[in-house]
Specification:
Chains C, E: GO terms for molecular function: ATP binding; ATP hydrolysis activity. The complex is a heteropentamer, with 1 copy of chain A (about 290 residues), 1 copy of chain B (about 260 residues), 2 copies of chain C (about 270 residues) and 1 copy of chain D (about 325 residues). With about 290 residues, chain A is mainly alpha-helical. Chain A contains 12 helices and no strands. Chain A has a single domain, classed as Orthogonal Bundle (MetI-like fold). Chain A is globular, with a radius of gyration of 23 Å. Classes of the chains: A mainly alpha (about 290), B mainly alpha (about 260), C alpha/beta (about 270), D alpha/beta (about 325). At the A-E interface, loops of A face loops of E. The structure holds adenosine-5'-triphosphate (ATP) (2 copies) and magnesium ion (2 copies). One adenosine-5'-triphosphate sits at the interface of chains C and E.
Chain lengths: ~290, ~260, ~270, ~325, ~270
């Protein structure tokens, strides 16, 4: 870790450069390879970018974006609550696990697209069925990882909690949840992006707006530059969400990496902001992986 | 001791049966009360009937084979590529940082929205299905593997370093077992995602398989048949995932240290 | 024993006809067979025996963490089927028993918080207990930032803070230097004398066992049973140097030492690698 | 970048078509889930063979995937919808219509199988009542939607005030009954089912508002057409004969559906309306459709019939 | 020291001007300052000092697991920047250092396998080392199926099997009963005598330190430094009872005991909770 300000600044720059070189290279490659393309399926990157920028800064897509991502966050939140609750229950009880795991695996394997008719009849064509589908897609990675995370908590820790008769709600909040957290965050990380894909799927039927609707509609209209623009936008959003979550993850899993920040410095630390987090994480990983 | 184990095992089976019957009961109830009309949710019995006719038809098995082929091919490549890539990027921060955008972008990139482009590239073949499946499963597996290799505890890390264990053994004997719970979860997620995506692609493109049959049954208004294929899909996904679970319990025996309730 | 001091009596902790077998079928391994043990309230009982004999297993049985394969454990006339509020445990695996996501203070406070003790009070109590083990300056460190001995003391502080009437300690001073160990031995005796707590200490240090105990139980055999049950008649007031110099002490020490026969590591006969 | 046509076994056999030619050309044909009877009959009754073709017929996906399959060379000739291919051509996708397959025959007097349906007891009585309402459809941008918009315009309603939502076919009817949508635009089996369940027709669908509309067309990629003019010609000829054969042999058609579709037997035997099939395109209907598409913003620039439909097409 | 026996000499392990600080900025905490230490090859050096003084930290520095903040560690004239082949370590956290997915045998064999020792030979060697610590009957158990003391012995067996010239042991006998401990102390002396291995033992047991050591290094202070460096002139041949009865032994013991002053737990002055 660097101690001086300018040192930290340099570290941030370095980390950003490391993160950026490959995407930049690929974008450049794509740009030149597609520049003279006449195929409707492979529009020049320039045109895709123009459409994307127009769509977002021209405000054309804002309504769709807000609609879709409202559904997305509600769905993700529901998945989180259900995934954690069921995951903790099933993970901490061998009996429940034995009985219910096969059913959960079965439900997990059911194609949501096929349930759409029932969902639409039950929930209509408003945001509800979309939220349902997003939650349905997101819940599984969270649930499975929670189950496995809870099972992986060292027996000695569980035994301690039992010996001190920690009541259930406390045990969940202070022992099981933090203990399983390293694996839970993995589930959430995966759910974040699965949710985005489900967002598209959810707007295939019964929709009149939304980013997914826009992408599907443009595909159907053979406006593939728009389709590309939409999918790239979705990809970038996926990156941004994951990056934001990584910051959060970095913070809550500090103990897991054996990295401590003194209590007194916690607050100032927050103000160092995003860059410091990214840089800190990078430096930490470098340190952890010394041969 | 033994009798107790048997009792609990039969107990589990009975409990599972009860849950299954309850679920089917709810289904029947929803149909009987016409909560959901029969052309949306057929009665369980009519589905079973339809199942019986399908199960003897070779076309049914061929469809399953087609769906499986795409799913397993994609999953296999997803594992072959995802595990090493995840382990490498999980341990090497420089590579991880370099590929971070690509991976996070790729994970959210909805390949399904670009199916026309994929058809253009690969045609409506098993390969195309496998590619779509691959793009869907590889990233979850990478993420699981990344976090898995970071789960090696500090004490073990130090032990391994002090005994100068060479990298290949560290990977095989330390990182893989330590990451096993993470990897197994990745495989189980991947297994069902693979079947779902394979099926979804078939529904969307009409490529041969359970999905195409299902789409056709829906188009033809034969709802019980559609449910047969729906259940088939569930069973396929469940089967793949169960195989992975079984292997997990077999291979990760040390985990039995676990918290017995 | 002498009973001039207060005794926190919540009933006698008793093991009756206890047997413990791990595994089933051909892998079955009976560790403890047919054990009867009654712990006098207000006494310090020390448990000694060779490595792997089943001391930890017995402690886990007594605390209700595991159930006997046969027989029962009673506290007073309650049969113990799970951990009870009156018992605090210091685990042999003190490292594993720390919650790594909590700081030292949090680890000590946690059982109190779970019990609903108010914020101020539990902080006060945790602080006092950490002070008792000499860790008042390390309250906001994480467990992995502490040395082995410090972690062990955190585990002791946590058990003390829990304010139980019965304290089960599994090799609680194993990782401590002589000086700190002496201090904590004194503390143990104070706990008994001033608070009347019933204490069980598993230890490998025979001197320690005799010095601390009102009674020393010697474990041995396979499956293990009580080989000897020695009353220590050194009085309640003990002192590191004076007590250990008394002839009764030396005598007891020699007697117990001669009784701990483990399964015999034939070290000297094995060729070095 | 385009024109990649992997394993197009037939690309060299263009000249070998024609009656009784010694050479047989393989073609890969993509069909729809409905309206495909002539295609099967052309195969089983030997019309393809007669014209020197050997067809490998497979079930395709939605119009978008069908068109992509044509461009990729995955299919040589495929069924698709009129409005869909018009959009594709407008966006510069190198495909063209080589022939009609099924049109909304103005002279056919059987029961219509497409159009707007209102659930029993619907408060909607008139086209003007549709303003601000939601209509459930089967596939966005499909012909029924376009036809309905034409109907709305002709009845003085601004189509922009009506919203269309894509629904899975098997929910259309229930969605309307439960009030999730106000009206539906099904076709084929779902249309007839709904009618039997007491749904009210409003208008007569394509037959009334876009007579002769190209409901199903045959398309091929421009590169395939250029390389295999003879095959196209032979294919159209074979399909022409097969369509006539289908018109004359209703029982053969029903048998095709029994074998190749998942329609229930009762429907096939008693309820199915056998609409006439023809390879002929109604160019005035095409013009009207393309104009309407442009006016409704479905096409971003004007497209003429000759851009989409081969001049040589019947 | 006497040098009649073979010495596996791979160079002298030396710490030169070593300083170790954990944390940065305001959280910086200097544990070891300005330490110079040279370990005579073929000797047993015992390291004693109060809990938390930095003994484990020093061992990790010497083994190359962590790098000094200042100064250097040398083995012969190589500067150590990472673990070297000639050094084996027994960790204080013996539980954590077991690979839970390997059986006991696997854990002991693993470092050998890593070194490319053939299957037969490594089994033989692992078995012999397990026998040396009395665990030949527990080879195919998983670590969590063992008692604390048994796990500790597995860790010792693993280090022995590694066949290094320098053995760093961090409280290796802390969880063992007196009898087993004696056996392993004998074993340690045999290792030095017969194999000429250089051994460093961190221990809290002063008797053990004097009994085992050719030299006892007393650590203390904050940041810690060498408080005393005592040569133990009891000869190479030692015997549990006879040696411990010698007046030199008692004298050294008393001297060292008086030097270990920890930071003083004012236990007796703190009110009990
Ligand atoms: N979960 C378990 N499964 C199987 N065997 C076990 C289990 N726990 C303990 N044992 C066995 O029980 C025996 C006694 O173990 P225990 O931990 O009680 O010994 P101990 O007397 O505490 O020894 P130590 O002094 O070394 O800590 C050992 O032989 C051990 O192998
Ligand atoms: N990773 C770390 N980060 C911060 N401080 C640490 C870290 N490791 C050790 N310390 C501190 O260094 C000091 C010395 O620790 P060390 O483990 O070397 O002590 P020790 O002499 O081995 O004690 P014990 O006899 O109790 O094992 C302790 O005060 C501990 O808090
Ligand atoms: Mg024990
Ligand atoms: Mg230490």
């Amino acid at each position: 870790m660097t101690s001086s300000r300018s040192g930290a600044g340099r570290g941030v720059m370095k980390s950003l450069l490391i993160q950026a070189w490959l995407p930049i290279l690929l974008v450049l490659l794509w740009f030149f390879a597609s520049a003279s393309s006449t195929s409707a399926y492979w529009p020049p990157l320039e045109r895709i970018a123009t459409n994307l920028v127009d769509g977002i800064f021209g405000g054309r897509l804002w309504g769709d974006i807000i609609y879709s991502f409202t559904n997305y966050f509600i769905g993700l939140a529901i998945a989180l609550v259900i995934g954690l609750t069921v995951g903790i229950a099933v993970g901490s009880s061998a009996v429940l696990r034995n009985i219910f795991m096969p059913f959960l695996d079965f439900a997990r394997a059911s194609p949501p697209v096929v349930f759409v008719p029932i969902i639409i009849l039950a929930l209509g064509i408003g945001p509800e069925p979309k939220i349902f589908l997003i939650a349905f897609g997101c819940v599984w990675p969270i649930l499975l990882n929670t189950v496995e995370g809870v099972r992986a908590i060292p027996a000695s820790v569980i035994e301690t909690a039992r010996a001190y008769r920690i009541p259930v709600h406390f045990r969940v909040a202070k022992v099981i949840l933090p203990g399983a957290l390293p694996q839970i965050v993995v589930g959430v990380r995966i759910a974040i992006t699965i949710g985005i894909v489900m967002l598209i799927v959810s707007e295939m039927y019964g929709s009149t707006q939304g980013v997914g609707f826009f992408i599907l509609q443009s595909g159907m209209s053979f406006a593939l530059a728009d389709t590309w623009a939409g999918t790239i936008f979705i990809g970038i959003v996926g990156y941004v969400f994951t990056a934001l979550f990584a910051m959060f993850e970095h913070r809550i899993l500090r103990w897991y990496r054996n990295e401590a920040v003194p209590l007194s410095r916690r607050r100032t630390r927050r103000m160092d902001g995003l860059m410091a987090e990214i840089q800190g994480e990078a430096a930490q990983r470098v340190r952890n992986s010394q041969p | 001791m033994l009798s107790r184990a048997v009792r609990t095992r039969t107990g589990v089976v009975v409990a599972r049966l009860i849950v299954a019957l309850l679920a089917i009961g709810c289904w029947q109830l929803a149909v009987s009360t016409t909560l959901l009309p029969a052309n949306v949710l057929p009665a369980p019995f009519s589905v079973v009937e339809s199942f019986a006719t399908q199960i003897i038809s070779p076309d049914y098995w061929k469809a399953i084979g087609d769906t499986f082929a795409g799913a397993l091919l994609g999953l296999a490549f997803g594992i072959i590529v995802g595990v090493p890539v995840g382990m490498l990027t999980g341990r090497r921060p420089l590579i991880e940082l370099s590929t971070r955008f690509l991976f996070d972008f790729g994970r959210a990139f909805p390949a399904i929205a670009l199916i026309p482009v994929l058809i253009l590239l690969l045609g409506r073949t098993t390969d195309m299905k496998a590619v779509v499946v691959f793009t869907a499963v590889v990233f979850p597996i990478i993420v699981q593997a990344q976090h898995g290799v970071r789960s090696v505890t500090a004490s073990i890390e130090e032990t391994v370093r002090s005994f100068r264990i060479p990298p290949h053994l560290v990977v095989l004997k330390v990182m893989l077992p330590s990451a096993a719970p993470f990897l197994a979860t990745g495989f189980r997620l991947g297994a069902t995602i693979a079947v779902l995506v394979s099926l979804g692609t078939e529904v969307l493109t009409g490529a041969a398989g359970v999905g195409a049959e299902l789409g056709e049954a829906q188009q033809g208004g034969d709802t019980p048949l559609a449910y047969v294929f729906l259940l088939t899909a569930c069973i396929l996904g469940f089967a793949v995932s169960a195989v992975v679970s079984f292997a997990q319990d077999r291979l990760i025996r040390w985990q039995t240290e676990g918290n017995e309730d | 024993m002498s009973t001039s001091s207060p005794i926190k009596d919540v009933g006698t902790l008793r093991a009756v006809g206890v047997q413990k077998t791990f595994g089933t079928g051909s892998a079955a391994n009976t560790i403890i067979a047919d054990l009867d043990l009654e712990l006098t309230p207000g006494d310090v009982t020390c448990l000694v025996g060779p490595s792997g004999v089943g001391k930890t297993t017995l402690l886990r049985l007594l605390s209700g963490l595991i159930q006997p394969s046969e027989g029962k454990v009673f506290l007073g006339d309650r049969s113990i089927t799970g951990p009870v509020e009156d018992i605090a445990v210091v685990f042999q695996d003190y490292r594993g028993s720390m919650l790594p996501w909590m700081r030292v203070l949090g680890n000590v406070e946690f059982p109190l918080q779970a019990r609903g003790v108010g914020k101020r009070e539990r902080f006060e109590r945790a602080r006092r207990c950490l002070e008792l083990v000499g860790l008042q300056d390390n309250m906001d460190k994480f467990p992995w930032q502490l040395s082995g001995g410090m972690q062990q003391r955190v585990a002791i502080a946590r058990a003390l803070a829990y304010d139980a009437s019965i304290l089960l300690m599994d090799e609680p001073f194993g990782s401590l230097d002589a000086q700190t160990r002496f201090e904590l031995e004194e503390l143990t005796l104070r706990l008994r004398r001033d608070l009347g707590i019933t204490i069980i200490v598993v230890t490998h240090d025979i001197d320690e066992a005799v010095f601390l105990g009102d009674r020393v139980v010697v474990f041995g055999g396979r499956p293990s049973r009580i080989v000897d049950d020695v009353a220590v008649n050194l009085g309640r007031e003990r002192e590191q140097l004076a007590t250990k110099a008394r002839p009764e002490f030396i005598e007891l020490r020699t007697r117990i030492l001669s009784e701990i026969k483990n399964n015999g590591i034939p070290t000297s006969s094995v060729r070095l690698p | 970048l385009v024109g990649c046509s992997p394993d197009t076994a037939s690309s060299d056999g263009g000249a070998g078509a024609g009656d009784g030619g010694a050479e047989i050309t393989d073609i890969k044909v993509g069909r729809n889930p409905g309206g495909f009877e002539a295609t099967i009959l052309a195969d089983t009754e030997g019309f393809f063979e007669k014209h020197g073709l050997k067809a490998e017929i497979s079930l395709g996906g939605d119009p978008t995937t069908q068109i992509a399959s044509l461009v990729s060379g995955d299919l040589d000739i495929a069924m698709t919808g009129g409005p869909d291919i018009a959009r594709a051509v407008a966006q510069g996708i190198p495909v063209s219509v080589i022939s009609g397959a099924k049109s909304a025959e103005p002279d056919f007097d059987g029961e219509p199988t497409d159009g707007l349906l209102l659930p029993p007891g619907s408060p909607i009585k008139d086209w003007s009542d549709l303003e601000g309402k939601t209509v459930g459809i089967q596939g966005l941008g499909s012909l029924p939607q376009l036809v309905n918009n034409i109907a709305l315009t002709e009845n003085g309603v601004d189509p922009a005030t009506v919203s269309y939502v894509n629904l899975p076919v098997d929910t259309l009817m229930e969605a309307a009954k439960s009030g999730t949508v106000d009206a539906i635009l099904p076709f084929s089996v779902f249309f007839l089912n709904a009618v039997d369940q007491g749904f009210e027709k409003m208008g007569m669908g394509a037959r009334e508002f876009l007579p002769g509309a190209p409901q199903i067309v045959w398309a091929a990629s421009d590169s395939y057409i250029a390389a295999n003019p003879g095959v196209i010609e032979a294919f159209v000829a074979a399909m022409d004969e097969a369509s006539q054969f289908a018109g004359e042999n209703p029982e053969a058609v029903r048998d095709v559906y029994r074998e190749y579709s998942k329609f229930p037997e009762d429907f096939i035997a008693n309820r199915m309306v056998l609409e006439p099939l023809t390879v002929v395109s109604y160019r005035d209907a095409w013009t009207k459709m393309l104009d309407a598409q442009f006016e409704l913003g479905d096409l971003d620039h004007e497209v003429s019939v000759s851009d989409v439909l081969l001049d040589s097409a019947p």
